[in-house]
Amino acid sequence: DPPAAFRWALLQLKAGQPAAATNALNGMTYTVAQWAQLGQEAERANQRETAIMAYAKALEQAPDHPYLLNNWAWNKIEATGFVGSDVLEAAKDAHEALPDNPDILDTYATALLRSARYAECRRLLTAQSWLTDNSPRLLWVLGRAYESATDFNMALSTYEQTQRVTARKPGAFVGESPQELQARIDRIRNTPEFLRKSDLTPGVSEK
After folding, report:
1. What is the rounded average pLDDT of the residues 47-61?
2. 158 burial class (0-12, 13-18, 19+ CB within 10 angstroms)?
3. Distance between CA 181 and CA 28 in Å, rounded?
4. Which phi and psi (to 5°) does residue 20 adopt?
5. What is the mean pLDDT of residues 99-106?
6. Are 122 and 142 in contact (CB under 8 A)?
7. Is the pLDDT at 32 greater than 90, yes or no?
8. Cα–Cα distances in Å, from 54 out to 29, 67, 107, 153, 206?
9. For residue 195, pLDDT beyond 70
10. CA separation for the pair 144, 57 (Å, rounded)
11. What is the pLDDT of residue 12?
């Protein structure tokens, strides 16, 4: 009975039983909206694999839907930490469909960062500075791209900007706690490469 299985699966997800939810859904046919609802409920329960399955089922019926592409890609990134070409393509397609959506921009930028495409990640986020400069999360991802490419001056500047914007938006999602971000900044300041480059920077004479 598809309606009964759907209700049962939702209950199991809320109860933290993803395996039971998945078993209940086997062989069932649902609408795009229903699969999307199941995916969202699985996300709320932090059941990434179930969310991936539900969004994939929805995409079978609506393969170009930007929110489904984004949500599927984000859960794949969060579940595995690995970004394959399929995840990168889905994130890119979602961003091209909705280029001014900061959440979708975050997914694409994170996919580029996780796949070590640091220059592309930087170009993407700096090209949309009107979004990046007002988002602690996007600034943090940009800082990670600079740091990963050993551009420590730009990383430090971007992380400090992240802190300033976060102070105006308490509770905003960043990617790590304020204490972890400060520790990251302190590590960069003590990185030998950063210290050597700082020594080469001309000083400003005091008047």
Report:
1. 93
2. buried
3. 45
4. -65, -40
5. 97
6. yes
7. yes
8. 11, 13, 18, 42, 63
9. no
10. 33
11. 79
Which pTM value belongs to this model?
A: 0.86
Geometric angle at alpha carbon 41, from 35 and 43, rounded to 5°: 105
Instruction: Classify residue 16 by its DSSP letter.
Output: T
Between CA 72 and CA 177 the distance in angstroms is 25
Residues 70, 77 contacting (CB under 8 angstroms):
no
* Separation of alpha carbons 54 and 44, rounded Å: 13
pLDDT at 182: 97
Tell me the torsion sign for CA atoms 52, 117, 67, 60: negative
Q: Which helix (H) or strand (E) holds 117?
A: none
Residue-level pLDDT at 155: 96
Q: How many of the other CB atoms lie within 10 Å of CB of 141?
A: 27
pLDDT exceeds 70 at position 198 = no
Encoded tokens for 47: 């059941």
